[in-house]
Specification:
heterodimer, A: mainly alpha, about 0% strand, globular, B: alpha/beta, four-stranded antiparallel beta sheet, 9 helices, about 35% helix
């Protein structure tokens, strides 16, 4: 095994890791927003919203992420939708901002379906008595959700939500296929430049692990502290 | 009597406030309520007794539509609350805020302090300014002797304290009627007294109350009327003296012999 390429190419991994983190962060924010709205739709009484939310979740969970990525990346261009390009953002990222956004939005849309299921389970785990007490005081269904159910549900789902962030970091490696210079893409570049097919991948795996492992540890600690507070 | 505990003077004492006509409730194929007709007047303390599974809790929960009746009508304060046409305009929530409810398992909001539990509904539902809501909350807490728990979380309270807070939370909406669904059944025996004493004060102050309970002494001493329910129907109704002293129905006799 020969890792001497690292002295020349280590910055590639740094830039790749930075872009991976940025992409995952943005995707999780979008995913949480979508997921929360979908979850409210799924537990609510409005049948049309319930159907739409359920259809969304089932479709996203039932199709490969790679297909979704291509649909967003090529499909939207084909029907004339193009993410706005931002030269400043492109310079910071070292890649085309519009491409980057295609990756972020795909990951966000995909993650939203899973986050929805996390929130739904969280909302449904709250004792029915809480809703009954709130409704008996005259709070509407929406206010009951906003002031009573969701604040308790969020506490319950924080660990699962953190885990989703870990999953997004790992799954985001797929965006390398459309040329977004994330960690995986950079590792492939190193492989091509050095004619070493194997070792650069080992380094990439290690960097992914260094991103996700501390995060899992941090989540475990937060979870433990939350249990102590109960 | 403080201002906070005074029930709304909109209706004179003895006037009808709740009327139930032909109330039926099925859970799937199981008929839990088989046709209930009943009236409650302002100032009345109605105590519902009966064996487990007799439908008494379901009856109470139908009064504020936590359970939707399968058939029948319920009138509250002159309005038919079972009329679905008004619900879209929020009439259901409007009726509920005039009907306080206390649950067997307290159902305090665990992520809020005692004070926040109490002021949530007055502020969010009635738009009462925070200062005024807090003033009323503190006054009520003082009434039930829990001033020092104002900033505590529900997890730090005993069962009896939780239930007294739950009563205060309902009272903070200044309801016209208070419903109690087995308020002492989940309590350790030594805490039953403190909750019943709050309810007794409330009754003395003229609050209209409907209470489902297994506390026969409370029924005997505080009720203005006792209902005996079994298998989804009201079998006997009368003053405590009538029902406890001289029960007419054979099943009432049997039940009272077992519990007293």
């Amino acid at each position: 095994m020969n890792f001497t390429f690292l002295s020349k190419y280590w910055t590639y991994y740094l830039i790749g890791a930075k872009n991976t983190i940025l992409l995952a962060l943005l995707a999780v924010v979008i995913g949480v927003l979508i997921g929360m709205l979908l979850a409210i739709g799924r537990v609510g009484k409005n049948r049309a919203l319930k159907f739409l939310a359920t259809a969304y979740v089932e479709f996203i969970r039932g199709t490969p992420l790679l297909v979704q990525l291509f649909i967003i990346y090529y499909g939207l261009q084909a029907i004339g939708i193009r993410f706005p390009d931002s030269p400043i953002a492109s310079r910071i990222l070292g890649i085309n901002f519009a491409d980057f956004m295609a990756g972020v939005i795909t990951m966000g849309i995909n993650s939203g379906a899973y986050v929805c299921e996390i929130f739904r389970a969280g909302i449904q785990s709250i004792d029915k008595g809480q809703t009954e007490a709130a409704r008996s005081l005259g709070l509407s269904q929406t206010r009951t959700l906003v002031y009573v159910v969701i604040p308790q549900a969020i506490r319950n789902v924080l660990p699962a939500l953190g885990n989703e962030f870990v999953v997004v970091i790992k799954e985001s490696s797929i965006v390398s296929i459309i040329g977004i210079a994330d960690l995986m893409y950079k590792a492939n570049t190193v492989r091509g430049n050095t004619f070493q097919p194997f070792e650069p991948l080992l380094v990439a795996a290690l960097v992914y692990f260094l991103l996700t492992f501390p995060l899992s540890k941090l989540l475990a600690r937060i979870e433990k502290r939350m249990r102590e507070n109960d | 009597m403080t201002d906070a505990m005074t029930p709304s003077p909109a209706r004179a004492k003895g006037e009808e406030i709740i009327r139930v006509c032909g109330l039926k409730k099925n859970f799937g194929k199981l008929a839990v309520l088989k046709g209930i007709d009943e009236r409650v007047s302002t100032g009345e303390v109605l105590v519902v007794i009966g064996p487990s599974g007799s439908g008494k809790s379901t009856f109470l929960r139908c009064l504020n539509l936590l359970e939707m009746p399968t058939a029948g009508k319920i009138f509250f304060d002159g309005f038919e609350i079972t009329d679905k046409k008004g619900w879209k305009r929020g009439s259901l929530d409007a009726h509920r805020r005039d009907m306080g409810m206390v649950f067997q398992h307290f159902n305090l909001f665990p992520h809020m302090t005692v004070l926040e539990n109490i002021i949530l509904a007055p502020m969010k539902v009635k738009g009462v300014p925070r200062a005024e809501a807090e003033r009323l909350a503190r006054e009520l807490l003082d009434r039930v002797g829990l001033t020092e728990k104002t900033d505590a979380h529900p997890a730090q309270l005993s069962g009896g304290q939780k239930q007294r807070i739950a009563i205060v939370r309902a009272l903070a909406m200044k309801p016209k009627v208070m419903l109690f669904d087995e308020p002492t059944s989940a309590l350790d025996p030594e805490m039953v007294g403190e909750v019943l004493s709050v309810m007794r004060d409330l009754a003395r102050d003229g609050m209209t109350m409907a209470v489902v309970t297994h506390e026969m002494r409370f029924a005997r001493e505080v009720a203005s009327r006792v209902l005996f329910m079994d298998e989804g129907v009201i079998l006997e109704s009368g003053t405590p003296v009538e029902v406890f002293g001289n029960p007419k129905n054979a099943r009432t006799k049997e039940f009272l012999a077992k519990v007293t």
